[in-house]
Each structure stands twice: as structure tokens, then as C-alpha cells.
Automatic annotation (TrEMBL), chain A:
<keyword id="KW-0812">Transmembrane</keyword>
<protein>
    <submittedName>
        <fullName>Multisubunit sodium/proton antiporter MrpC subunit</fullName>
    </submittedName>
</protein>
<dbReference type="GO" id="GO:0005886">
    <property type="term" value="C:plasma membrane"/>
</dbReference>
<feature type="transmembrane region" description="Helical">
    <location>
        <begin position="29"/>
        <end position="47"/>
    </location>
</feature>
<comment type="similarity">
    <text>Belongs to the CPA3 antiporters (TC 2.A.63) subunit C family.</text>
</comment>
<feature type="transmembrane region" description="Helical">
    <location>
        <begin position="68"/>
        <end position="92"/>
    </location>
</feature>
<keyword id="KW-0472">Membrane</keyword>
<dbReference type="Pfam" id="PF00420">
    <property type="entry name" value="Oxidored_q2"/>
</dbReference>
<keyword id="KW-1133">Transmembrane helix</keyword>
Automatic annotation (TrEMBL), chain B:
<dbReference type="InterPro" id="IPR001750">
    <property type="entry name" value="ND/Mrp_TM"/>
</dbReference>
<feature type="transmembrane region" description="Helical">
    <location>
        <begin position="370"/>
        <end position="392"/>
    </location>
</feature>
<protein>
    <submittedName>
        <fullName>Multisubunit sodium/proton antiporter MrpD subunit</fullName>
    </submittedName>
</protein>
<dbReference type="GO" id="GO:0005886">
    <property type="term" value="C:plasma membrane"/>
</dbReference>
<feature type="transmembrane region" description="Helical">
    <location>
        <begin position="299"/>
        <end position="319"/>
    </location>
</feature>
<dbReference type="GO" id="GO:0042773">
    <property type="term" value="P:ATP synthesis coupled electron transport"/>
</dbReference>
<feature type="transmembrane region" description="Helical">
    <location>
        <begin position="64"/>
        <end position="95"/>
    </location>
</feature>
<keyword id="KW-0813">Transport</keyword>
<feature type="transmembrane region" description="Helical">
    <location>
        <begin position="33"/>
        <end position="52"/>
    </location>
</feature>
């Protein structure tokens, strides 16, 4: 099972990197989203996908899944939500101010 | 008593939240932030002295014993950096008051500065690697807000690149943490260090260490500094000074922590790589500092050179070199802030960023000119000033370790720093006076006063090197002997 999820995370990563290297601003935002998905899946996999009950203490259950990666992912999901919304609003403002969403045309040519 | 070490992070957070409610009462925001930072300076001095007496101080949150809960750890290295951070940011806030403009002040400039300081202090003090990620994000989100605050076209352009690169490096950081957790099953730094030592740093762990190297290099601008000159030259001066003094230094701190505490077993791989990266950073920074005709760009490339210089100390990895690197790190935080403030003041006075559009400023603004000259001398490492002792110790360490190429590169970079800054000094302050006395923009005392404090500090650090020597020696001793750190956290 870990093997399959690792390949899935790899695919997410590859598509994310491909999107980040594009010129359109929105694609870059999508790329960062894909990369953070890949990272979160990866944390889950690294905590081992052993079969077990959800980490809630109930009577009569002895096998639980590892609760620590869940807590880590939850934290980092919230952080990446915050960052993604900042990126989206910023992209919106940049497009409005500069009248382009092409990264090539957003180069600062003010310094010579 | 050890509750004291959470205050450098908790107080700015609380103040930041508190002054959000005083949107239109700018005086409350200003002086609230400034007084908080002064209180923090006092607290960090107390912490520093306490560490001299008791050894490393740590606090387990919620009473959970070391490997299971999260914790804050203050050793001399962290405490010295916290102290310097608070001093520098207090002075930047003092500079921001007359210069940043009413519009930015009403749009939550001071709360963001508070959160930035909280993130930086938290990164220095945490003893848990995932907590380090979180405090990094606190710092970075505040810096995203500060870099875009005001929303001019240029700022928006450059900040997108800055944010994109930091989002990617944060994801890489998460993945590195996931690998580390998958192989070792813990996130506490002391516990990690123990488990790595037990397994003798297998090749898998070395690969993970290289991933950490990439992550922190992106944050600190070691070799991967291409985002830095653009994004540090667009925000207003007070913000640029905060960034130049603090942000890359957190990356440098994280590199020192990981490669002295965790991954110190395979030095011929990791530390050789750091040495190569530091060397190339020095060369690249030097080329950039010479190439540009724009004051802000030259100053930004000087940050890159300093990063390379400090990381040479880590690459050499003996006590003398690390001691030198710590002296230089503290000196560089203070003097880089000073350099950014002075360059920003020059741009504010002449309304131009180009070298060839300024001339003869020394007649109009003698105090500014001589302060700039002192900064140049201090950054180059002329003896009575603060840059000297760090350079000498680092050079000594390099000679002991027989790494002559690094020695040559790091000392040659000193000449380039001298050349690039003297070029600013000679072409802007000497020569014909362009601005007549009637036309000159008055330089108010409020604007020049913060820089004057920093000049006094660089003299104090230079003459009083003896008085901070015990702290620096203790910091270097702890960094080179990881067992001291581990025994303080996990008493078995």
C-alpha cells in the first residue's frame, strides 16, 4: 500500500513542478496546491499505513493507527490554506495592477 | 524561572493581537511595539546570564517529558541571536515611525512586525523540528504581508517570486520532516540526534540531510540566492532592513543547528558540500556586488556575501571557526540593518537609486556620510569595529583545518565588500555637490537617530568583544559537543 501511495505522491509532485514552471500565474498557484497535496500524502505514508482503528480511545480496541502524522498534516493543511489564499489574492492584485498574468512580462526591468 | 524562555515568542504574539484592535490609534501601535521589543531585550539578557549559571534552559510545554511533548530550548547560541534580533527590530521600528508613511501604518504594519519577531524568536528557541517548521511559517507569512504592504507594482511583481519560492521550500521542508519521521520515528531534536548517533548516520540519513541542506539553503540564500536581491530591494527601507538583518539569519541558524546537532557524522559528504556551496555563494555575491549600479542591489548582494562567509565557519567545523562565525553572525545582523537604513536614507534624500545620479552628499549631509564610512569599515573588518574579531577567528579556524581555498575566498570577499561599498561612498558622497543648500531635503533627527544607535552598537561590539566572549565561547562549545545539548534535554 505504501508503495502505491508513494507513486501517487510522485505523480502529484511531477505535475505540481510542471505547473509551477509555467508562465501563467494561476497555473503557478495550482502547482503550489498540488505540491502541498503531495507533501501531505507523503507525511501520511511515512507514518506507515498499518491497518488499525482510527486513533480514538474506545474499549476493547488495542490496535490504532499512528496519530502523530495526522496531527502534523492537520497543522500543515491549515498553514497551506492560509498561504494559498494569500497567493491567490496576490495574483489577483498583480494581474489588476500590471495588466498581465504572464510571468515573463512581470520581470522587474527597473534596475539597470 | 524557565518559563521565561517562552516570553520572547509569546509577548510579541500577544502584543500583535492586542494592537490589531487599535487600527486608527497609531501612537498606541508604535509605542506598544517599541516598548515590547525593549522588554524582550531585557528578558533575553536575563536568559543569557541564566544560561551562563545553570547551563542550557529548556521548558516542556504541558508538562510532557522531553521526547513526547514539544519544548523550547535556550542555549547561548539561540539566546544571543534572540537578543540581537530584538535589538535590531526595535531600532528598525524606531526608523519606521517617521519614514514608513501613514497609510502603511494604519494597515497593520506594527502587528505584522510583531508576528515577524515572534516567528524569528520562536525559530531560534524551539527544540522540535516540526515546531521549527511552524515558527518558520509564522515568520514567512508575516514577511509575505510586509513585502506586499502598500501594493506598489514593483512590490507585487517581486513578492510573487518570493512567495512562490518559499512555498516550494516549505513543501520540501515538510517532505524532509516526513522522511525523518519515517526513518527515526521522532521529531524532538535531541532525541533525533541520539537516534542518528546510534544508527551511525546511514546513507539514507545522509540523503535526508542533503534535503535539509537544500531547504535551509533556499531560506538562507546559500547558493540558491537568486530570489534574494529582487525581493530585498523592493519593500520600504525599514522593512528591507528587518529582512536583511533577520530572515536569512534564521536559515543560517537552522543550518548550524541541523549540521552540528543532528547530521555531523558524515562530514566528508555534507560539510564538503556546504564548503563548496559557501565558496560559490561568496563568488556569486561578489560578482553581483560589483556588477550593479543600483544602491539597493549592491546592498542586497552584500547580504549574500555575508551568508557565504558565515557558512564557511560551519563548513570548517572546528570550535575556533564556529566561534568566529557566531561573532560574525551577531555583528552582521547589526551592521546589515545599519547598511540598509543608511542606503534607504540616501535614496529617500535624493529620490534616486542610481550611483551616477548622486554626488557630493557629504557637504549636505556630513553625519550620514561619516556613518556610512564607519559602516563600510565595520563590514570589511577594520580592527576597532565589530567585524574584525569574527574574521580573525574564522581565519584562524581555517588555517588550523588547512582549508586554504575557503580562507582565500572568504578574505578576498572582504576586499570586494570594501570595493563595492567604497564605490557607493566615493561616487555619492564625494565629488561635486549637485544639491544646493536651498533645495536639499532636510534630514530630520528622527531619521538619522536609529542609525546612530546602530553605529554606537557596532563600536560597542568591537571594543567590548571581551564582554560577550564567554557567551560566544559557550555557544561554540555547545554546538561542537552535541552531547551537552542532548544531556540537558533528555536526562537519563
Amino acid at each position: 500500500m505504501e508503495f502505491i501511495i508513494c507513486i501517487l505522491a510522485g505523480i502529484l509532485f511531477a505535475t505540481g513542478v510542471y505547473n509551477i514552471l509555467q508562465k501563467q500565474l494561476l497555473r503557478i498557484a495550482i502547482g503550489t496546491g498540488l505540491i502541498s497535496h503531495a507533501a501531505h500524502l507523503f507525511i501520511l505514508t511515512m507514518g506507515k499505513l498499518k491497518r488499525g482503528q482510527p486513533p480514538i480511545i474506545l474499549e476493547g480496541i488495542t490496535e490504532y493507527t499512528d496519530p502523530l502524522p495526522h496531527a502534523l498534516i492537520l497543522t500543515s493543511i491549515v498553514i497551506s490554506f492560509g498561504v494559498t489564499s494569500v497567493v491567490l489574492v496576490l495574483a489577483y492584485r498583480t494581474v489588476n495592477e500590471n495588466n498581465t498574468d504572464n510571468m515573463e512580462q512581470l520581470r522587474g526591468n527597473e534596475y539597470e | 524561572m524557565n518559563n521565561l524562555i517562552v516570553l520572547p515568542m509569546v509577548l510579541p504574539l500577544l502584543t500583535g493581537v492586542f494592537i490589531v484592535f487599535f487600527k486608527s490609534y497609531i501612537q498606541v501601535q508604535r509605542w506598544g511595539t517599541f516598548i515590547l521589543l525593549l522588554v524582550n531585550v531585557g528578558i533575553s539578557v536575563i536568559i543569557l546570564r541564566q544560561i551562563q549559571i545553570d547551563g542550557i534552559i529548556s521548558i516542556d510545554f504541558g508538562g510532557w517529558a522531553a521526547p513526547f511533548g514539544i519544548l523550547f530550548v535556550a542555549d547561548s547560541f539561540a539566546a544571543l541571536l534572540v537578543l540581537t534580533t530584538n535589538i535590531v527590530s526595535a531600532i528598525c521600528v524606531l526608523y519606521a515611525m517617521p519614514t514608513i508613511g501613514k497609510r502603511r501604518e494604519t494597515f497593520y504594519f506594527y502587528p505584522f512586525v510583531n508576528f515577524l519577531v515572534a516567528g524569528v524568536n520562536g525559530s531560534f528557541l524551539t527544540g522540535d523540528i516540526f515546531n521549527l517548521f511552524v515558527t518558520f511559517e509564522v515568520m514567512l507569512l508575516a514577511s509575505y504581508a510586509l513585502i506586499t504592504l502598500g501594493g506598489t507594482r514593483l512590490q507585487l511583481k517581486e513578492s510573487l517570486k518570493y512567495i512562490a519560492i518559499n512555498v516550494v521550500s516549505s513543501s520540501l521542508f515538510l517532505i524532509a520532516i516526513a522522511y525523518l519521521y519515517g526513518t527515526l520515528g521522532t521529531l524532538n531534536m535531541a532525541h533525533l540526534s541520539m537516534r542518528i548517533a546510534e544508527s551511525g548516520q546511514t546513507p539514507l540519513l545522509t540523503v535526508i540531510s542533503l534535503l535539509f541542506l537544500i531547504v535551509f539553503s533556499l531560506k538562507s540564500g546559500l547558493l540558491l540566492y537568486q530570489w534574494l536581491p529582487g525581493s530585498y530591494s523592493t519593500p520600504p527601507t525599514a522593512i528591507a532592513a528587518l529582512f536583511g538583518a533577520l530572515l536569512t539569519k534564521v536559515g543560517i541558524y537552522a543550518l548550524f543547528r541541523t549540521f552540528t546537532l543532528l547530521f555531523y557524522h558524515e562530514q566528508q559528504i555534507t560539510h564538503t558540500l556546504i564548503a563548496i556551496m559557501a565558496g560559490v555563494t561568496l563568488i556569486g555575491g561578489c560578482i553581483g556586488a560589483i556588477a550593479y549600479n543600483n544602491i539597493r542591489q549592491i546592498v542586497a548582494y552584500n547580504v549574500v556575501i555575508a551568508v557565504g562567509f558565515i557558512l564557511v565557519g560551519l563548513a570548517i567545523m572546528n570550535t575556533t571557526a564556529i566561534e568566529g562565525a557566531i561573532y560574525y553572525l551577531v555583528h552582521d545582523m547589526i551592521v546589515k540593518a545599519l547598511l540598509f537604513l543608511l542606503a534607504g536614507t540616501m535614496i529617500y534624500l535624493t529620490k534616486s537609486e542610481k550611483l551616477d545620479e548622486m554626488s557630493g552628499l557629504i557637504r549636505n549631509y556630513p553625519s550620514l556620510g561619516w556613518m556610512f564610512f564607519i559602516t563600510v569599515l565595520s563590514l570589511t573588518g577594520i580592527p576597532p569595529l565589530s567585524g574584525f574579531i569574527g574574521k580573525v577567528l574564522l581565519g584562524q579556524g581555517a588555517i588550523v583545518a588547512e582549508s586554504y581555498i575557503l580562507l582565500l575566498l572568504s578574505f578576498m570577499s572582504g576586499f570586494v565588500v570594501l570595493y563595492s561599498l567604497l564605490r557607493i561612498f566615493m561616487s555619492c558622497f564625494w565629488g561635486e555637490t549637485i544639491i544646493s543648500e536651498e533645495e536639499e531635503t532636510p534630514l530630520s533627527k528622527k531619521v538619522i537617530f536609529p542609525s546612530a544607535i546602530l553605529v554606537v552598537l557596532t563600536f560597542a561590539l568591537g571594543f567590548g568583544a571581551e564582554s560577550i566572549a564567554p557567551y560566544v565561547q559557550d555557544a561554540a562549545y555547545t554546538l561542537t559537543n552535541p552531547s551537552v545539548y542532548i544531556n540537558a534535554i533528555l536526562p537519563d
